[in-house]
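pinned: reference chain
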Amino acid sequence: MSEPDDRPLLAKRLDDLFRTVRPKGKHWTNAEVAEELKRNNPDLKVGGVYLSQLRTGKRSNPSPDLLAALARFFGVSVAYFFDDEVAESVLGELAAVEALRQAGVRAVAMRAAGMKRENLQAITAIMDQYRQLQGLPPVTDTPEAEGGGPAR
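pinned: its structure tokens
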């Protein structure tokens, strides 16, 4: 049984964005998001520690400029942080996107099952090229996954 989440609503919603939204196809750390925000808004005062404090509820009063920058970064309306209906709609859309993403991963895995190692390596190379074309970060396989064992 999980413990009740007594963080402020803003903290929960911001943390949900960090956990579920993947700008440029990756999960972002607090420090990486802070750097991106400052790169796009040089006058913005934000750091990884401050974002962590906002996500945990230790801090709870970000500037309107920071909220607007976070909303832009994660591709949501600023209203997401304050309006229950908007937040519910956004989270529903995110859940649908994640389900589609997972369905695609499962479909690829099902097609790969039972294939020869050299065929899998060729397919992996093609997928890596497409990731690069889309501007996604490279995938680093674990040694166990490269050896054909289960990836963790």
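why pinned: Confidence is low (pLDDT under 50) at residues 143-152. Helices lie at 9-20, 30-40, 48-56, 64-74, 84-112, 117-133, 143-146.
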